[in-house]
Each structure stands twice: as C-alpha cells, then as structure tokens.
Amino acid sequence: MIPFVDLKSQYLSIKQEIDNAVLQVLDSTQFILGNEVQTLETEFASYCNADFGIAVNTGTSALHLALLAAGIGPGDEVITVPFTFVATVAAICYTGARPVFVDIDPVSYTIDVTQIEKAITERTKAILPVHLYGQPADMEPILEIARRYDLIVIEDAAQAHGAEYKGQRVGSIGDLGCFSFYPGKNLGAYGEGGMVVTNHPEYTQKMRMLRDWGQEQRYHHVLKGYNYRMDGIQGAILRVKLRYLENWTEARRNHAALYDQLLADSWLKTPVVMPYSRHVYHIYSVRCPGSDTMPPSQQRQALQKMLNEQGIQTGIHYPIPVHLQQAYADLGYKLGDFPWSEKAAHEVLSLPMYAELKTSQIQTVVESLQKFDCGEKFR
Length: 379
Known about the structure:
Aspartate Aminotransferase, domain 1; Aspartate Aminotransferase, domain 2; 12 helices; 13% strand; 7-stranded mixed β-sheet; alpha/beta
C-alpha cells in the first residue's frame, strides 16, 4: 500500500521530541493557550517574516477572525475563487458578507488577476486570494488593485506554509495571512489548529480578544467573541514540527521534481510552477484530460479505481467547485459561470505526496499510471 499521506512515518521520525513536548504540557497543566502557544506564535510569525501571530483552533477560525478584524460584515463583498476548499467561502459567509467569485487562471489554479477589477463594486471590502496546493497566487497585481480601491488583502495560505512569492513568504504579503494546521498539512498538528499572521498591531489585538470570548482581561468582555483558542498540546507539537518544516518542504519539492521528470512524456498534465513561485507541494495534482471515448471525470474515475486496486491511494482536490455546491446555491451562480474552475474540478487527481515518500514508491506510482489505457486522442 502506498498511502496518500503517511502521518505515522512522520510521527515515528520525531517521536521522542513530540512525546517529551506533550508530557511537558501535561506537567505544566497549561492546556489552553499558555507558554507553548505564545512561543509558537512568535516562532511561526518569524518564519513567515511577519511581526505577529495569533494562534487559533482551526484554519477556518483563522479566516473568520481575519475577516472580522478587517471590519468585514453584513452588506460587504469579498472577492475570492470557487476552486478552493469550502472553508474559504464559509468564513466569508460567517461574517454576514457575500462571497463574489472570480475564475482561476487555468495554468496556476490560483485567482485570475485579470478578472478581479471587473468584480469590484461599491460593496467590495476585501480580496481573498487562495494559495492553492502550495503555490502562491500572483500577489503583485492583487496588491496594486487593492491599493487603488482601498481594499484589504487576506491571504488564504492554509495549503502554503513556507511558500514564497518573489522571495517573500506568503502570509506576510497582504494585510493578513491565514494558515491551517490540520494534520495532513505541510505543518500539521495532531488535532486541529490554525494561525493568523500580520504586521498590524491593531488587527492582532482585536483577534486575540475575539478568539477568547472578546475578553480584554478575564471576565471583561469588550467584544462579542468566540471560543477559538488553541490547545497547549497542539502548540507544543507544532513547535517541534516547525523545526523540521524546511527539510520536509525540500523533500516534497524533490519528490515533485522526480514526478515531473518521470511523467514528462505522459498523457497526464503535471503541475506548472509559476516563475514567481516557490511551490511547496501540499498537493501534487496532475490533470486527466478526456479522450474521444471518455470525458475527463470518467477517465479520472477509471484511473483512480485502477490505482486503488494496485494499492495506491489518491485524492481529488476538489471535485465540485463551491459555486456548484448545494449549500451555496443561494449565491445565485450556475454551471458555466466559471469554466476554468469547472474544468479543473473534472480533471485534477492528487498523487501521494509527503516528505517521507520513497523514490521507489514514486516510481511505482508512475509505472502504474503509465500502464493505464487512456485512449489515443485527447480533448
């Protein structure tokens, strides 16, 4: 079996350090926030080249608090993409604001910056680009548009820990950057976790109150807040793992390079790294074009079934864009509104990718892909 993600291997490689860190939290009894979380905030913000970090319980909470700190609320509009995990859009809706979608660029899968300006209205308050799969969005034109229209830029960097745009770490490029520490992420907790990083002290103060019931001090509730605090144990675990993140990232990048090399003459389309990007490959996603005899989604389904039968796990990120999800039908979008997002949703297939992946496993995955009868002509 070649798993899609192998969390056990990673844990075993750092088991003693993790176990000791957890035991220290148990001994300290600082189970909610506490010294480990506070130190993680400083260390992770520094890693992102940001001044402040605000640790929370999930990546979704990070997005929610970032939006609230920026003053987003009912009647406002936030521009983002439909080809993303649903949390990006859910967090906007939590504030009472309306998500306004812009299609993705067909090469990078990130927001098509040429489409942003025409989506701006008098209600627009923020742009929320998604650094999808570990590749940054094209931030320079986004920031230029935001400056001209006086908009906030909130980066969804949930899949992009350590990714860089023109040498600058994501999360510190816009006004606020939001990360997820879900276990499968490049930097993952052993449970849930998230972080907002920013260079703005006023946003920092507001988010630290909002995550802890709006308290300025204990039992003094200045804002109507939430219970979005990070556990001390997760803070300690993430501090250990942060020390390994760069090595793990380089391993992922090396694995991706090998996939690229072995699949260079394949019928599958491999990821394109944009010239401004340091891609960190949270996901290594190939595209399965349709043939004369089979549309893309059926081709992908057949390929995925064959791989699974050979003991190779894969994923699809994401099979239904948010504008076509039943839960968001009230936004009023329809099939055909965002053709590149819809095309990607029908074609993408995520291959096994994690730092501990072996060269022999990648070779096995590629050999299996090459055995698949994909037909002769592609659409």
